[in-house]
Write a structure and sequence with these properties.
Chain lengths: 200, 629
């Protein structure tokens, strides 16, 4: 027997949309029907270390007529499970050893508005896979593509860039920061220079 | 909008029932006159000593002879590491008239922990990453730049530097300047021309190794150790031939005796330190291979006993649950033969270290009247909050007295040399333990003390911090951090975070102490004029009376100070005092690296104790040199 609304996030989402109650009712019926299906999992994943896209841009300046950066959102931008997996990986792969719980230390802070190499999912993907010159290791070939996308989603949640119902809402360890869910969205800013990259 | 919501709902509904988790890989110059050296006890220089009769008189009471007070050729001033200068022009009476003589911007914005060197009429300054060496001409007005040398260390090395990309200085020896680069290379640079003589790769950043320490040159060997206790390195001290840069010997901190260079001459004082291959058997399975015990701090040398002394850093990871055993020889002190590297004695002051008390602090070699006779001792204000006085011939602990607030231990058992642990404060996996004092940086970190033979006091710059800690899962992945702890630091009792303490090691008591708002992360220097110099993280360079701690003078620098003050005689015969400003280091990373204080665990938990620092200081490396008008 499958219980309807076993997922708290679904419930919350429905409550939030008070103004569209009728829609919520209709959709909840749909949900009851759909929720009984076991989640469709995508077991087919990208080959390891695939590039995020062939047209990832880090800067707005480009020669000739501007073309848009390909918008690669990744499969977990709106997936709480993927984000929570990203959080687990963030600690297990020792990301937390350099960036801590978002405040930074060896690596830059991830909970603030500053993004040295871009805040878009495809930029973060490239940062993780290729590494960056001022100390970010290249994880390409050491993590599956799927796992990188999970990390991307979690990293974005740290500065409040994901919807509140997708971002992790609780922490089992010592409380050292506000929960990702409760973190105010930090509107991404392009950093002028990596702080550690300065030289005379 | 409504349609979007519906779609989202359906998507959420479809994925929400999942309770299955995909599997994830979970770890996956001139002459080398050794005779002069043996007697002199400090690197010799080709430059004539300008001090005249002054030095000899001032040093009559000093423990080990000194090469001269005109210059400052190694960071600790002399092999005994006293940082005492016999210069007397600047005194308690006239220090208030001290004025700025010249400045020099390094152009680097990270933490400046090094002190300048003065050899002859040239001053040498080494910067944090990218580790530029500048030579300044002291004979010209304003000390203009003579040359600069750039070693171009790998940028990637910044990713394996635990606590800002600092460098603690260079050492002069026979016409060359020796220092280490963050990417684990040692370089020798011609002191006259700035040309590279040799460059040797001694470590591997892909194993988490970096180098931040200042080398020491002893009997033609450049002694260099690695950093990386937060990256699971295997610690070592290496001797390189000063002329060629070729490896002479390497002594590991962990592993079998043949790697630790423990042989027939090894006679540790305490029972627990005797036995074969303790560097293997005191670890679970192969964990000694990535067990930490770096050598990133200070080395002292006693020419009479012909022994070098240095401390080994914390075991990796911080979380002690995963490494049962004494974890030898981390958090200990070694006495070794400088020619062969052979260990003569070792003493592990924090077996199975629980708190990242890495023991790389300075070791002052003094001859003190203890128990009615003059003893050759090694004095060390330790991370754990005790001042240890050891017999430096045998490794016996003569006394260990607290100089800071301590909750982690209840004293040191002098029969065994072991601390008496307070088990309530031991960190555990998944458990938050509060009120751990001192915190991980200890009661005192790398910042070196000075010793005045005139006052008989030790001038100890230190901090007053406590922390909460929770142990977490440890995953060793080479080249990434291996700490396994969440830490949150805060001010200790009293609310002040730093102190400068004058300590009497014979009377075993504090004589005076100055409380500072922030950790006193700078070194100290004391002169025969009875003046102690030190700097604060909130931009003050201060002179205090060595006898009573009374403040005599202060100067406002552009950035916070975490460097090492020195004093020397200029070519004009005047006494100068020099300091590098440039906030950073572990406590200053919040400013130097722009960290976010909303995460209390940032920078290994130090950020929580330094939340107000960005409001009082900004980054920027600058040399300040002072003289009387």
């Amino acid at each position: 027997m499958c219980l309807p609304f076993r997922n708290r996030e679904n419930l919350r989402r429905i409550r939030i949309r008070g103004s569209a109650r009728r829609l919520a009712l209709a959709s909840s019926l749909l949900l009851v029907l759909s929720a009984c299906e076991r989640e469709k999992r995508q077991f087919e994943t990208w080959p390891p270390s695939a590039a995020a896209s062939t047209a990832v841009r880090e800067v707005e300046l480009q020669p000739g007529p501007p073309t848009r950066s390909v918008d690669v959102r990744g499969p977990y931008a709106n997936n709480a499970f993927g984000v929570s997996e990203g959080k687990r990986l963030y600690n297990q792969m020792n990301c937390s050893g350099c960036h801590f719980q978002g405040g930074g230390g060896i690596g830059p802070a991830l909970m603030d508005a500053e993004w040295i190499y871009g805040s878009a999912p495809e930029n973060i993907f490239e940062t993780i896979v290729e590494g960056r010159p001022n100390g970010m290791p290249a994880f390409g070939g050491k993590l599956g593509t799927d796992q990188v996308w999970q990390l991307v989603a979690y990293v974005r949640s740290m500065s409040g860039l994901l919807p509140k119902d997708i971002a992790p809402g609780r922490n089992d360890d010592m409380q050292v920061r506000s929960q990702e869910q409760a973190t105010e969205k930090a509107l991404p800013q392009q950093s002028t220079l990596p702080p550690s990259g300065e030289r005379p | 909008m409504a349609r979007v919501s519906l779609v989202v709902l359906l998507v959420v509904g479809a994925v929400a029932c999942s309770d299955e988790r995909p599997s994830v890989p979970s770890s996956n110059a001139p002459s080398a006159r050794t005779t002069t050296l043996a007697a002199g006890g400090s690197p010799e220089s080709e430059v004539p000593d300008r001090r005249g009769a002054l030095g000899a008189a001032a040093h009559a009471a000093s423990m080990l002879p000194d090469s001269g007070d005109a210059q400052w050729t190694i960071p600790a001033k002399n092999y005994a590491s006293t940082r005492y200068s016999g210069l007397t022009q600047i005194t308690t009476e006239n220090v208030s008239g001290l004025q700025l003589a010249f400045t020099f911007s390094t152009g680097v914005n990270r933490g400046h922990e090094a002190g300048p060197l003065v050899v002859g009429s040239t001053m040498y300054v080494v910067t944090p990453f990218p580790n530029i060496l500048y030579a300044l001409d002291l004979t010209q007005p304003g000390a203009p730049l003579k040359w600069k040398y750039e070693p171009h260390p790998s940028s990637a090395a910044q990713g394996v530097a635990c606590c800002d990309v600092v460098n603690r200085g260079a050492a002069y020896w026979e016409g060359k300047i020796y220092y280490n680069t963050l990417d684990a290379h040692t370089v020798a640079v011609d002191a006259a021309t700035g040309k590279e003589v040799w460059k040797t790769k001694v470590g591997e950043i892909n194993q988490g190794e970096s180098i931040t320490m200042a080398p020491l040159v002893v009997k033609g060997k450049v002694l260099v150790g690695n950093s990386g206790g937060e990256f699971g390195v295997r610690g070592w001290l290496t001797a390189l031939d000063a002329a060629t840069g070729k490896l002479a010997w390497r002594a590991h901190t962990t592993g079998p005796d043949k790697d630790v260079l423990i042989g027939l001459r090894f006679k540790p004082f305490y029972e627990q330190d005797r036995g074969p291959d303790l560097g293997v058997s005191s670890w679970p399975s192969d964990m000694w291979k990535y067990g930490g015990g770096g050598v990133w701090g200070w080395i002292s040398y006693d020419p009479e006993l012909d022994l070098i002394y240095y401390g080994t850093a914390n075991p990796s990871p911080w979380n002690p649950d995963v490494r049962p055993g004494d974890n030898k020889w981390t958090a200990g002190i070694f006495a070794r033969d400088p020619d062969t590297g052979e260990a003569v004695w070792a003493y592990q002051w924090s077996p199975h270290d629980l708190y990242d008390y890495d023991g790389v602090n300075e070791l002052l070699l003094l001859d003190l009247p203890i128990g009615g006779q003059t003893r050759k001792v090694l004095v060390r204000p330790e991370r754990d909050g005790y001042i240890y006085v050891l017999d430096r011939q045998s490794g016996e602990v003569l006394s260990a007295d607290p100089y800071n607030y301590i909750t982690t231990t209840r004293g040191i058992d002098l029969k065994t040399g072991r601390p008496i642990e307070n088990h309530e404060k031991a960190p555990r996996t998944g458990k938050v333990v509060r009120g751990i004092c001192p915190a991980a940086p200890g009661a005192k970190d790398w910042q070196p003390s000075s010793w005045s033979p005139k006052t008989g006091l030790l001038y100890i710059p230190h901090q007053n911090l406590c922390q909460d800690e929770e142990g977490t899962e440890a995953n060793y992945i080479a080249g990434t951090p291996y700490v396994a702890a969440i830490v949150k630091m805060y001010a200790g009792p009293g609310g002040h975070r730093g102190e400068l303490t004058a300590w009497d090691p014979v009377g075993r008591k504090e004589v005076w102490t100055i409380k500072e708002k922030f950790p006193v992360w700078s070194g100290t220097v004391v002169t025969a004029g009875d003046v102690v110099f030190y700097g604060t993280m909130d931009n003050w360079f201060k002179a205090v009376d060595a006898r009573n701690g009374k403040e005599l003078w202060r100067f406002r620098t552009g950035s916070g100070i975490i460097g090492q003050p020195i004093t020397y005689l200029g070519p004009d015969g005047k006494q100068y005092v020099a300091i590098m400003a440039g906030v950073g280091g572990w406590p200053g990373a919040i400013v130097a690296a722009g960290l976010d204080a909303r995460d209390s665990s940032a920078a290994l938990g130090f950020v929580n104790a330094m939340k107000d620092l960005p409001g009082v200081t900004t980054k920027g490396g600058m040399l300040y040199v002072f003289a009387l008008p």
